[in-house]
Amino acid sequence: MTDSGFVTETVFDIDALLSPEELDWKHTAREFATTRILPVIEQDFEEKHFRAELVPALGAAGLLGMHLEGYGCAGASAVSYGLACLELEAADSGWRTFVSVQGSLAMSAIHKFGSEEQKQRWLPRMAAGEAIGCFALTEPTGGSDPAAMETMARRDGDEWVLGGRKRWIGLASVADVAVVWAKTDEGVRGFLVPGGTAGFRAEPIEGKLSMRASIQCDVYLDDCRLPAEAMLPGAKGLSGPLSCLNEARFGIIWGAMGAARTCLEVAIARSLSREVFGAPIGARQLVQQKLADMLLEYEKGTLLALHIGRQKDAGTLTHAQISVGKLNNVREAIAIASAARSILGGDGVTNEFPVMRHLANLESVRTYEGTDDIHTLILGRELTGIAAFD
């Protein structure tokens, strides 16, 4: 780093494109990531530890559901939220994922589709980090085809009874409320399941080599009984959960560039400190080419994220543009992390440097909220008018 910031920021002055409010949010998130996450993240990743005490601190910083209006939420712009995601993922993808699950998925579902009573009950506590939410959509048979979900909800008098299974549900074992999507006789509906409800069980998935500082779970719904008022009244059909997924994808578009920036900064620093054949490796043409290519893709990805953020704030963002951003930025972040690992040599696979942790995490980011293949097909459909999913 230079005295004024990261080395990349002396070449790519993104701050010149941001408003004072956006800069404030960027600095707030960077300060949190630097002082609260970075000092402990390598240990937490190694020990598979989710540091739950950071959740109220995120709430106190205004970072939970920050793009939502009212109910204790900050009402920040989309670009401000994106910048926060970038800074958090520069520390670790797991913590940007937490903010996405809490704010873009669980809180957004309640904010968009909940009754006033549901909003008043949950949103202020979630914004403060006093309650954790999860979003249960993906199932074991495949997350890419939510229309094929097997989880069912049936009426039994004044109650709903849910049965089925969900997989890769972030935060489910620590959630105070789960937003569960299930098929009913009238289409897909969302239900709020408070933690501790009989018939709801969440088990953390073991053996993860990625996202080790966060929690993903298998969820089992066995005759899980809920009152009629547990249903989200404003969501009917798959458009409800898919609109929330687009909120989360927006955060990924920005967050992936945070992981990329960290890997690039580490590679620059190492290229100056590591000497081979009597000179720093940064003096070698091939290494400089790698660094230049990494910077180009980081700059382009961040400018793409900013363009998409401006579209979102203007209300003109399309599904296709979200797919462009998610597909490009995660793919290029992985390429940047991989190139950084090569510059670090063998040391790049150790936890002396954060690159391998970011590379492992980004493989999960590449998979969730739509794989490369799915977003490629979405864009293909947009360009040709022909759906090639089947």
CATH superfamily of the largest domain: Butyryl-CoA Dehydrogenase, subunit A, domain 3
The amount of helix comes to 40-55%
Radius of gyration (CA) equals: 21 Å
Q: Say what the CATH topology of the largest domain is.
A: Butyryl-CoA Dehydrogenase, subunit A, domain 3
Strand order of the largest sheet: 2-3-7-6
Shape: globular
Number of helices: 11
Structural class: alpha+beta
What's the main sheet like?
A: 4 strands, antiparallel
Number of strands: 9
The CATH level-2 architecture of the largest domain is identified as Up-down Bundle
Reading the helices and strands in chain order gives HHHHHHEEEEEEEHEEHHHH
> Would you state the CATH class of the largest domain?
Mainly Alpha
What is the compact description of this entry?
The chain is α+β, with helices and mostly antiparallel strands. The protein has helices spanning 7-11, 20-47, 54-60, 78-91, 93-113, 116-127, 239-273, 285-314, 319-344, 355-367, 372-384; strands at 133-136, 152-156, 159-170, 177-184, 187-194, 200-204, 216-227, 275-276, 279-280.
